[in-house]
Design brief:
seven-stranded mixed β-sheet, 15% strand, 2 domains, 7 strands, globular
């Protein structure tokens, strides 16, 4: 029983059990399950009550039993973490009012992200970090390793990060790229990112109004990254516009990684939308919503701009196509100095 002696209402207990079961079936890690509980139960049920629910679900399956006990242990002994996650998650409203314009939604989201970043910088960009910088760094490193396998590295790579947040990917990728431009609608997050990336001369962090990529010229980036950004573009009705803009700013055979397309809870719907929009704007889907990460529960979509002969779901072709193009290009031009500095 919880420290308060209360039990959750039957409806709340049933909802919590259903959510936990879905998370376990989905393979979500314990930290991700805690984060989802915090989003679902912003008020009305305390952490200890949810711990009791998790313990009531224990089964003969040893792996499942272990995960449930770890969920209960964290909820019972670190209610402060759960409170922080609730507050951080509640700062950003994930619904849209009928009267809101696209621009109004973006402005509201920007204010929400500002508030979330003042509560917990780490949790504001990945709730399943539990507000812990070490956990966030570990998850970021795992994502960066995956990105680099998809071609997001190299001394000639220019990368655009849409919704850069607190600059964690700029910091992690700066040594492996020529130039990284991070944009975000949150002035608070941009401020944090600039402090985090101080001294990184190839990192450019800019606030944006969030309605398009008008600040950038055609074919100006080798790679575009959007981690947990598209769910908010979907909410604001801007997903199609951003597909068009990403296709415009990518160089031929450039790569775009969309990590989480929406929060609708349907991978099938997300896949259908991504394929439809990619085809409409001359891009090919080569990674189709899989969950390749152990420390984060995001879905990964990888798109390649027109040019190149890639087979669907063959991510290895991304590097091969782009590498062959670079090699062909280099044989047609005068050699350059190996000491050529990075652009500021």
């Amino acid at each position: 029983m919880s420290a308060t002696g209360r039990k959750p209402s039957p409806q709340a207990a049933s909802t919590a059990k259903m959510l936990i079961e879905e998370c376990l079936a989905d393979g979500a890690c314990v930290d991700a399950i805690i984060a989802r509980l915090a989003l679902r139960f912003e008020t009305g049920v305390d952490a200890a009550e949810l711990a009791d629910v998790a313990l009531e679900m224990r089964s003969a399956d040893l792996r499942k039993r272990d995960r449930l006990e770890r969920i209960a242990d964290l909820l019972r002994h670190r209610p402060d973490i759960f409170t922080t996650l609730r507050q951080t998650g509640a700062a950003v409203r994930h619904e849209r009012d009928e009267w809101e314009t696209d621009a109004a939604v973006v402005r509201r989201l920007a204010a929400g992200f500002d508030a979330a970043a003042t509560i917990s910088q780490a949790a504001s960009v990945q709730l399943s970090s539990l507000g812990d910088e070490e956990k966030l760094t570990a998850a970021t490193d795992e994502i960066v390793a995956w990105l680099q396998r998809q071609g997001f590295s190299g001394p000639d790579q220019d990368i655009l990060d849409i919704g850069c947040g607190i600059g964690r990917f700029e910091s992690a990728l700066s040594d492996a790229a020529h130039r990284i431009v991070g944009i975000d609608i949150s002035l608070e997050m941009i401020s944090v990112a600039r402090r985090r990336c101080a001294g990184l001369r190839n990192v450019d962090l800019r606030p944006t109004f969030g309605l398009d990529l008008a600040d950038f010229t055609n074919a100006s980036f080798d790679c575009v990254l959007a981690v947990d950004s598209f769910p908010y573009l979907v909410l604001a009705g801007l997903a199609e516009r951003y597909f068009e803009e990403i296709a415009r700013v990518l160089k031929p055979s450039g790569v775009a990684a969309l990590l989480n397309y929406s929060y609708r809870g349907s991978t099938a719907l997300d896949r259908a939308d991504v394929h439809r929009l990619a085809e409409a704007h001359g891009m090919q889907v080569v990674a189709d919503g899989a969950k390749p990460f152990r420390l984060w529960d995001g879905n990964a979509f990888l798109l390649v701009a027109s040019e190149g002969t890639l087979r669907r779901n063959d991510c290895s072709g991304v590097k091969e196509t782009r590498a062959s193009k670079r090699q062909a290009h280099q044989t047609d031009r005068a050699p350059v100095s190996a000491d050529n500095p990075k652009e500021d």
